[in-house]
Amino acid sequence: MVKIKDRRFEPYIHESKVLERVSLLAKNIERDYRGKEPLLLAVLNGSFMFISDLAKSINIPIEVSFIKISSYQATRSSGEIKKLVGLDRVLKGRDVIIVEDIVDTGKSMAYILEMVQEQEPASVEIASLLLKPASLEQQIKIKYLGFEIPDAFVVGYGLDYDGLGRNLNHIYQLKS
Ligand SMILES: O=P(O)(O)OC[C@H]1O[C@H](OP(=O)(O)OP(=O)(O)O)[C@H](O)[C@@H]1O
Ligand code: HPA
């Protein structure tokens, strides 16, 4: 059990399970993009651990770049998405893989997809470590998915509660 500010979190997905799954996703990306040079577009802050482990396990040429958006305050989506760091690469004609730590309501991903599609990439797919199907408010197809999880707030492996908990190596779930 870990305590972050006013909340208690219990162990949920062990780091070894996360890493096993991430390396499988990397192998799938490798297989699907052989002969290409995909651009992995990671969404800060939450995806920093996932993109690091994912990128290290992909043994074909890839480019890695970052965008930064924010919508969550503590455990709730504010509904308002702020773009804090935008695209610094031309995406036209590129094979883009958007890399997220979690798709929850799907609002952030819908916003990012629109931003990416505007630039007319050759293809766009999504890699997300976590998905909360019960919270999803938009139709979003995730080709490279780590785990489907129930609708409970999680922290660790990049995910935060009010800015804290990102450095935890396992994933923890809010204790009800
Ligand atoms: O599907 P949604 O309900 O939109 O939630 C998912 C988004 O929320 C988190 O980001 P957050 O805004 O907390 O910023 P962070 O990555 O800096 O933690 C997460 O990294 C996703 O980007
Ligand atoms: O469950 C979550 N944990 C941390 N950040 C998040 N952003 C959306 N959902 C979550």
TrEMBL record:
It is found in: Cytoplasm. It comes from the Bacteria. Residues 18-161 form the Phosphoribosyltransferase domain. InterPro entries: HGPRT, Hxn_phspho_trans, PRTase-like, PRTase_dom. Keywords: Cytoplasm, Glycosyltransferase, Magnesium, Metal-binding, Nucleotide-binding, Purine salvage, Transferase. Belongs to the purine/pyrimidine phosphoribosyltransferase family. Its EC number is 2.4.2.8. Its main location: cytoplasm. One of its GO terms (molecular function) is glycosyltransferase activity. CDD domains: PRTases_typeI. Its cofactor is Mg(2+). SUPFAM superfamilies: PRTase-like. Pathway: Purine metabolism; IMP biosynthesis via salvage pathway; IMP from hypoxanthine: step 1/1. It is an enzyme of class 2 (transferase). NCBIfam families: HGPRTase. It catalyses: GMP + diphosphate = guanine + 5-phospho-alpha-D-ribose 1-diphosphate; IMP + diphosphate = hypoxanthine + 5-phospho-alpha-D-ribose 1-diphosphate. This is Hypoxanthine phosphoribosyltransferase.
